[in-house]
From TrEMBL:
SMART domains: MUTSac, MUTSd, SMR. This is Endonuclease MutS2. Residues 720-795 form the Smr domain. HAMAP family: MutS2 (MF_00092). The keyword RNA-binding applies. ATP binds at residues 343-350. The lineage of its organism: Bacteria, Pseudomonadati, Bacteroidota, Cytophagia, Cytophagales. Its EC number is 3.1.-.-, 3.6.4.-. InterPro entries: DNA_mismatch_repair_MutS_C, DNA_mismatch_repair_MutS_core, DNA_mismatch_repair_MutS_sf, MSSS, MutS, MutS2, P-loop_NTPase, Smr_dom. The keyword Transit peptide does not apply. Homodimer. Binds to stalled ribosomes, contacting rRNA.
Length: 795
């Protein structure tokens, strides 16, 4: 139930209805706007809301949805339903084009993803459009609304004959006109015209007897007469006959087409109802976009849980002025069903009340409402409103009497599913009695479990709300220093009317203000001052909260910047390490190539001592140059002179790796580099001071210059086993083996060749004796192979 009858006018819904009508594309949609009404069925309201929400999403996506040719063909269908009737060409054009729009809409939803527009797709499930009927209409009428010349063979023939005869007529009439102009019977700028469906020539009245023919008309002044020359009588008659025949053939075609359409009238009415609904839903979606409306979560039971709600009409009005509406947030539920709003005049109490009534009414009419995402709403069976002056001279009712009449209706009819809206509760009569009656009515409404929003200035009602479960105080905020409203709703405390303060501000004489204060009583003044102080404290708390929020945002920003900087440093570190590894790999490749080239040079020089020395010098120079280019000097320990003993820390001359001497044997030393032992000549070692660097568990990527030579030395085995090989292959392998040993400075090597017939041993020893760097060749100890192996000492 909606009370009173002029409810829509009171809350401004009539303006919304007018806006929707103006948005519609045709009377089809306007029809549904006019029928729009308050609904109490949850499933129906839910469906209407989702239809609008889906169409709103459709528009936002920019999809190509048909918006043309929304013709209302209701009258055409009514005429077509009558046996023996036929439709005009214009009617078939509108039907054809609008049916094409309907087909396009149905195709759009059928081809869209199933999850996108389920409610809009369901809307057209039972709609059918006969494509054969569309094709038949398209054969007769083109897309510009004109009859096609080839609508039938007879029509085409008649059209051709007409064109031919009209050409002959224009030719003859022009000849007559030229003669009349030459004779001076007509003006020089005269042209043929039509009178009574016949082509005639304008002739000056004094010469009308000179031109033979039939006078059809004369000008208003009587100075010109319009004559059909007798020479074109027959042509005009022929053309008239052809036009009549053409019209008869066209009527025959239209009659046939109407007969074809007549059986489909019932289906077509449903199709056009569908088109009207699309127009109506489209208008609601456009309006929802204008007011920034959303789809709240809808519940079956009464509830209001709105965030940032705005009055749509006020929003559009302010938007046009470049202003913003202050939104309101409120909750009505089982614990606090009735909101009692107090505060100064012009502070926004009535606007708040109207906002609640209008938005709830819009929602249950199937319209999206301007609230923030995440808002919730419920269903009410009734909405009652008492607002404005309802004084009636006819019924001899005063303003207060009309309010009492409304209170009577509310108390009698309102229940647990009703929403009651009362503005300026209790006013219109003596304050003490009016307040008492208002408190009694409020108590009754609360007992009946109604939901509501009520505005008042009465202190007794504020006190009643404070101590009564189910009712909660609310206040419209007010700047007590500037004495101007802030239009912000605060729930949980009552508001002050600030009457004394406002009177003082507008300049009412001070003695009057003081007397009014005394008359109001100390308790009342103290009460208002308390509210004023609470408001001031609230402003101060909000200010501090804003400052804290600003500081918190700055802290979060600083933390984010720190995190971003840390991430950047980590990424930079990773990039630097990656780059260093890459350069190390390149250096390793270059150094290995140089080593291979040096070995190759030594081989090619047949181990000539001088060339070997030059090659090694070139390798050393290359290494030093690499060190300079990379600008990465290795962290060296300080060197020291003196005799070497086991346990000393040493490094190979020109290298950075530091090892520890394990044992000494003549001019050679066994040195431990990391986990690898190697034999090195003592003359190639230098003692260093400091601590042995800790060896990492995971072998790092070579990053120091000279590590390639050391690695090669560590990987070199002083024993070569060539047993069972052909002499030629064994000799080739021995040559490379000896070259590596000489280049790396290995003092002693061992070749295992086996005994056999002694040929392999002889070939290998002959080659070794030819190498200048070989100091001596001897058999291995008997226990370790005897003459099956050769020990070679290098210089």
């Amino acid at each position: 139930m909606i009370y009173p009858q002029n409810f829509e006018n009171k809350i401004g819904f009539n303006q919304i209805r007018e806006s929707l009508i103006s948005i519609c594309l045709s009377p089809l949609g306007q029809y549904f706007v006019n029928r729009m009404q308050y609904l109490t069925r949850y499933d129906l309201v839910q469906k209407l809301l989702h239809q609008t929400h889906e169409f709103q999403g459709l528009m936002v996506s920019g999809a190509d949805f048909p918006t043309q040719h929304y013709f209302d063909v209701t009258e055409h269908l009514n005429r077509a339903a009558i046996e023996g009737s036929f439709l005009e060409v214009r009617a078939f054009f509108e039907i054809k084009m609008s049916l094409r729009t309907i087909r396009q809409a149905l195709t759009f939803f059928s081809q869209a993803e199933e999850t996108l527009y389920p409610n809009l797709r369901a809307l057209g499930e039972s709609i059918q459009v006969d494509r054969h009927l569309l094709a038949a209409m398209d054969k007769v009428v083109d897309d510009n609304g004109a009859v096609r010349d080839n609508a039938s063979p007879e029509l085409a023939r008649l059209k051709a004959d007409l064109i031919h005869q009209q050409a002959l007529l224009r030719k003859q009439i022009q000849a007559v006109l030229r003669h009349a102009k030459a004779s001076g019977w007509t003006n020089s700028d005269a042209e043929p015209t039509v009178r009574g469906g016949r082509i005639v020539i304008p002739v000056l009245a004094e010469y009308k007897r000179r031109l033979k023919g039939l006078i059809h008309d004369e000008s208003t002044s009587g100075q010109t007469v319009y004559i059909e020359p007798d020479t074109v009588f027959e042509l005009n008659n022929d053309i008239k006959d052809l036009e009549n025949a053409y019209h008869r053939e066209l009527i025959r075609i239209l009659t046939t087409l109407t007969n074809q359409l007549r059986p489909a009238v019932i289906d077509l009415r449903k199709a056009y109802q569908y088109l009207g609904l699309l127009d109506y839903i489209r208008a609601k979606a456009i309006y929802a976009t204008r007011i920034e409306a959303t789809l709240p979560t809808l519940h079956k039971t009464p509830a209001v849980k709105w965030q940032d709600a705005r009055h749509p009409l006020l929003y559009l009005n302010f938007k046009g002025q470049g202003r913003e509406v202050v939104p309101l947030s409120l909750t009505l539920d089982k614990e606090q069903r009735i909101l009692l709003i107090s505060g100064p005049n012009a502070g926004g109490k009535s606007v708040t009340l109207k906002t609640v009534g209008l938005l709830q009414y819009m929602l249950q009419c199937g319209l999206l409402i301007p609230v923030a995402e995440g808002s919730e709403a419920g269903m009410f069976e009734d909405i009652f409103i008492d607002i404005g002056d309802e004084q009636s001279l006819e019924n001899d009712l005063s303003t207060y009497s009309s309010h009492l009449q409304n209170m009577k209706q509310f108390v009698v009819l309102a229940g647990r599913k009703s929403l009651v809206l009362i503005d300026e509760f209790g006013t219109g009569t003596e304050p003490q009695l009016g307040g008492a009656i208002a408190e009694a009515v409020l108590d009754k409404l609360n007992q009946q479990g109604v939901f509501g929003v009520i505005t008042t200035h009465y202190t007794n009602l504020k006190n009643f709300a404070q101590r009564t479960p189910g009712i909660v105080n609310g206040a419209m905020r007010y700047d007590h220093k500037e004495l101007k409203p802030l239009y912000q709703l605060v729930i949980g405390k009552p508001g002050s009317s600030f009457a004394i303060e406002i009177a003082r501000k507008i300049g009412l004489p001070q003695d009057i203000v003081n007397k009014a204060s005394n008359l109001a009583g100390r308790d009342k003044i103290r009460y208002d001052r308390l509210l004023e102080e609470l408001e001031a404290e609230k402003v101060e708390v909000e200010k501090r909260n804003r400052e804290l929020a600003t500081q918190e945002r700055k802290m979060r920003q600083s933390a984010k910047e720190y995190s971003d900087m840390k991430q950047l440093l980590e990424e930079s570190k990773a990039d630097i390490i990656s780059e260093a590894k890459q350069k190390a790999k390149l250096l390793l490749r270059d150094t290995n190539q140089q080593i291979e080239a040096t070995i190759q040079q030594i081989r090619q020089s047949q181990a000539d001592k001088e060339q070997t020395k030059q090659a090694r010098q070139a390798l050393e120079t290359f290494t030093q140059e690499k060190i300079k280019v990379e600008h990465r000097p290795a962290k060296k320990l300080s060197t020291a002179k003196g005799e070497l003993v086991p346990g000393d820390l040493v490094s190979i001359l020109g290298q950075d790796s530091v090892g520890q001497i394990v044992s000494l044997k003549g001019k050679t030393a066994e040195v431990l580099f990391g986990n690898i032992k190697t034999i090195v000549k003592t003359e190639n070692l230098e003692r260093v001071e400091g601590q042995l660097p800790k060896v990492k568990k995971e072998a790092p990527e070579p990053s120091r210059q000279g590590m390639n030579l050391t690695q090669r030395m560590a990987d070199f085995s002083p024993t070569l086993d060539v047993r069972g090989q052909r002499a030629e292959d064994a000799l080739t392998q021995l040559m490379a083996f000896v070259d590596d040993a000489i280049m790396l400075g290995i003092p002693e090597i061992k070749i295992i060749h086996g005994r056999g017939n002694g040929i392999l041993k002889q070939v290998l020893r002959d080659y070794l004796r030819s190498v200048k760097e070989v100091a001596s060749i001897s058999n291995e100890h008997v226990e370790r192979g005897g003459d099956g192996a050769s020990l070679v000492v290098l210089k």
